[in-house]
Amino acid sequence: MTRLSSLILPALIHAGSLATVLAALAYQYIGGLLPCILCLQQRVPHYVLIGFGLLMLVPTLFLFRRFRAYRVFYFGSLTVIVGAAVFLAAKHVGVEYGWWQGPMNCGGAVEKMTSPDQLFALERPDCSKPLYIFPGITMATAHLLAVLPLLVLSLVGLYRNLFRS
Description:
The chain has helices at about 5, 10-30, 35-55, 55-65, 70-95, 140-165, and strands spanning about 130-135, 135-140. With about 160 residues, it is mostly helical. The two termini are about 10 Å apart.
């Protein structure tokens, strides 16, 4: 296996995460959809994953092919970060379907007032009221469907490096 082909799996995971967060930002800034509190929380693991990828880019290019322990560390880190994204997405889907209650600050006015202009600001959407982008598919469900393959890819990479030589 060449150096380039061994980096395809991590590149797919990072690209998928970047595409997911860019799609959410496009819905917000181009589509004009105001995200709820849970939607904003769901973006955090993607920001962490992008930062992790940028921080580890140079070491990965030099160490990934040579050292199995580095690959295990790398895929283990990816699995934890993407696992957090899956957890937050599943939490949001559960709130939308009424399986459990969302945070108390879901919906309502912005928490901190820093200027008088914010007094008349728009309220945040209610986390329990789903926004459908396709019939039967909510934004939270679409996010869950987007991050589940990333979790599978990171688990495949971790499995390959833990149990195969």
